[in-house]
Amino acid sequence: MTNDLFYAAGLITRSALNPKRHHVTLAALHMDIESVRTYCLSFPHATENVQWGADLVFKIGGKMFAVIGLDPGSDHCMSFKATPEKFAELTERKGIVPAPYVARYHWVALERFNALSEKELKSLLQTAYDLVFERLPKKVKAGLEKGDAPKPKKRR
User: Fold this and answer.
1) pTM of the predicted model, to two decimals?
2) Does 155 fall in a domain?
3) What is the predicted pLDDT for the residue at 22?
4) In what order do the strands lie in the sheet with 55-60?
5) Exposure winner among 5, 39, 90, 106, fewest CB in 10 A?
């Protein structure tokens, strides 16, 4: 496919093209597992851990804001929290569905990373982080500011 076809399909803008060479790589337009991981861990006090066997979970104050599926057989590559309005908008788009088990909390799942541009995905991940951080209890927020790590809850 040529750059003109990418442009016509709405996958790139003219400003994304290198004016000297008139070409662009798709890798530069979309994120992958490593770039999403790096970006999520750049948020203050964000942590990661592997849960449920093959999911890389990103948390703030012990609460999830994004999950990357590491199982190549999964039909979703990642999911994250969204506002109710953005949830409704995103789930109308191709390659984005309500996240299994957590859609009632306005989580969306990407079927592939190229369902969103890098710029849009970064914005949505920032929003996911902010939504979860805002709902943290005051004690947890204060602990994060002081540098205390949240203690995991013990299940009975």
Assistant:
1) 0.73
2) no
3) 43
4) 46-51, 55-60, 63-69, 78-81, 107-110, 96-98
5) 5
